[in-house]
Amino acid sequence: MNSYRPCQFRLTMLGTLFCAAFCAQSKATNPCDPSVVPKEVQSRLDKDYPDWQVEKLENLDDDDRKLWTNAHPNDCPGIAIGHFESKTELSYALLLVSKPDRKRQGFRVVAFTPSGPSAPYVSHLVTKWNDGLYYSGSDEVITTVAPGHYEEAIGSKNVQTDLDAILCETLEKGAAVYYWKNGRYHELITSE
Description:
Radius of gyration: 20 Å
Shape: globular
Strand content: 35-45%
Largest sheet: 5 strands, antiparallel
Distance between the termini: 70 Å
Structural class: alpha+beta
Order of helices and strands: HHEHEEEEEEEEEE
Number of helices: 3
């Protein structure tokens, strides 16, 4: 009977490793799980934006979904997390598209940041677009970009950011960086 214990141990270890790999893969396949956003932010979304939902992988066109998952396999195309407004407080930027039953036009990018330690979240409308139906077949995504130097695609404007910024992109068409300065978000079109 003792001779079977090493085999049982190996089988138990293999089972544990398989479960860990499967659980990690399950998490990676659903990067838009709402639990990554604080409950206070989720409540504010339900209250302030009842016609809108966070952009999800399944909302993207097939080709755009492949592009996104190849470049950002563990990220949600509708959630960007970073130090957008403060070096000490994390912000949550959300790309909101119409809920299927509401069929609102356009999209919204809204950032939520606590006004201080243990303080309530304050929301800022980063940008909005009122054309197009994005409840299915979307090509809009957001992601976090690090502090750095950014240049305008056409023109001479450039900016050096000290905080993270939000990159809002229409896949394979154009992108803009939104950065916090002097108490509000500013736009810099970085590709067309």
